[in-house]
Every structure is written in C-alpha cells, then in structure tokens.
Amino acid sequence: MTQAPTETGPSRSRRAPSRRRAAAAPRRRRRVWRWIALGLVVLVLAAGGTGYWLYSDLNSNIKGVDIDRALGDDRPEKLPTSGQNVLVLGSDSRAGANASLDTGKVAGARSDTALVIHIPEGRKKAVAVSIPRDTLVTRPECAKADGSTLPSAKRVMFNSVYSLAGPACVVKTVEKMSGVRMDHYLEIDFAGFKNLVDAIGGVTVTVDQDIHDKSSGLDLSAGSHRLDGTQSLQFVRTRHGIGDGSDLGRIGLQQKFMIALLSEIKKQDLLGSPAKAYKVAAGLTQSLTTDSGLSSLTKLAEFSRSMKGVDPATMDTIMLPVQYDTQDPNRVVAAEPQSTQLWKALRADRTIPESAKDSPAKGGRTP
Hints:
The chain is α+β, with helices and mostly antiparallel strands. It is built from ten helices and 17 strands. It has helices at residues 8-61, 67-71, 160-165, 167-178, 190-199, 229-237, 247-267, 274-285, 297-306, 338-347, and strands at residues 63-65, 84-91, 111-119, 127-130, 136-139, 142-143, 149-150, 153-157, 184-189, 203-207, 211-213, 218-220, 223-227, 288-291, 316-319, 322-324, 332-334. The protein has a seven-stranded mixed sheet with strand order 1-14-9-2-3-4-15, sandwiched between helices. The protein has a two-stranded antiparallel ribbon with strand order 5-8. Strands 6-7 form a two-stranded antiparallel ribbon. The longest helix is centred in the N-terminal third of the chain and has 54 residues, at 8-61. It starts with 7 loop residues before the first helix and ends in a 20-residue tail after the last helix.
C-alpha cells in the first residue's frame, strides 16, 4: 500500500532554502566587514606612509652644521642662568633659487643680516642684538670646509667671515667678540625668506616716512603696507632710501620687519591649517641651515614650543653700539664701554642698561 505523503517532507524542502539564506547572510556580512576593515587598514597605512614621506621630505631639506664639533672646547663657558642665545644669519647668496631674486651680482655669499637673539630664563621676553655687517672685527683662527686653516686676522669686515670660512667661524667670531656662548645657529637665505613671507600671506609693516630706493626697488609711502615676499626682501635690504644710506640705517628696518614677521606667525593658527603649515615648512626648510641641535623638524618644533611664551611685541631690539672707524669712515667698530656693558648683561642674563643701548654711530637714524 502506498504511503500517503506527509507534511514533513514537503515542508522541510520548502524551509531549507530559507535556512541556507539565513546562514549565508552572516557570512556575507562578515565578508563585508572584513573588506571594510581591510580598506581602513589600507587607508591608515597609506596616510601613515604619506605622513612619513612628507616628514622625511621636509626633514631632509634642513642642512645641519655640527658647531660643537667644529669649535671644540675653545668657547665661552655656558653659565647655568644665562638663558638661551641663538645666532641668526640672513645669507645673501646669489646662487641657486636666489639667482632670480634681483639681489645683485656678487660672487659667493655673505652674512647680510646678523642677530644675536637672547631668550632669558623663563622664556618671557627676548632681546635681539643686530651686528652691523660693516663692523670691523678680529676674526679668530678657523677651520675651513676643505680642512685647511684660516689664520686669525684683525680689522676684517664682519660679513666677510661667512664667505671665507662658513657658519662655524661666524659663531666663533661672535663668541670671541661677545664672550657669550651661542646655544643655537639658524641661517636662512634670500629664497627661503621670500617663500616664508609668501606662505603666510604677507606681512604688514608701518613706516613713518616715504621710502624710495632705486637700488632695492622699494617704493613705499608713509603708512601701513601689506608686503609680499619680494617686497619684504626689498624692505630688509633697503639702505639708500633711508638715513645716510649706510648699513646702520637699514638695521632699523630689519628690526621693524622682524617684529612684524614674528607677530604674524604667532597670530596665525598654523596647526589649524595643515595645508598652510606644510607650505610654510616646505618653503622654509629648503633654505634653512641650523646647528645639529636643531637640524630636524622634531627638534625645531620642540624649540619653537619652548619659545611660545615670548611675545614678539615686547621684544627688545638693539643695535650693537658702534662708532665710525677713525681710519675708514665707511666702517664701524664696537663702541666702548657700551658694547662691553651689553655683552656682560647678556652673559649674566640681566636687564640691559639703557647706557649700553646708546650707539655713537646711528647712520642717520632717529635715536
């Protein structure tokens, strides 16, 4: 007798596809999440690789000089309460990217601008001392890049030291003339200076009188002006449109611009704009030379963070007190006792007396 079909068979055959679909769904969801997770890993690795590439690219731009090794032990003592001292040079090389900046036809490079920045203990108020490039100094014996020795010499122009023996010799010369140990060294050339200003969108300066300098190309009326990189370079190099046309008159403009530049950088939220921060870093590092203690982005960032409490608006800007040389009125020499008083105050990390700021030679500048 044939058995009648029961509900069990057909029912199982109809429910089986449903169970297979139900079992397959979790597997598909797991595969989807695995692909999402894999995608996230790829993105993270790609971002990390890009970040590392950008960091390495910028980091490799910075040129480092081992000042400690070059100078050895023949240096002023580092006092425990002397704050931080940084020698900042503006190099006037006409080579490479600088050649297109209309900065004259001069072979080699010189220290067009020289500043000793003193940051007292506590990092609250800095002092910037400008050393006129035409100052006659005693150059100490220095080792040159090729291993030969440059003998000591008296009555040489300060800005010639860089071209003859390089940055380490400039540091040594400043230390010998001041007795102040330089903790760090920073150098930026014309192209880097221009790129930095352009990257931050310009710098605003205010001048009290019209400036017309055919040599630098600067043409400004009295008042406030937003300068781009090219105009800023003209501004800090102007000497014929102000004062008596000497380097001493130009120093006043350089100090004014430095304060304006630092204030502009401080007020801009570069961390809030990674694209601008990268642009600034790229333009700056391509033309930057530092001592080995600052020759990486990490070290520069740490040093910058330590300076965060310094307000550029309160920075004291001073020109090394000088007087016209009796043998050559186109040159100057350190004035005494003012220069000795100035360097002594920096060595001891003390307030600079007003008498130490008085320079007999003013270059036609308003005192």
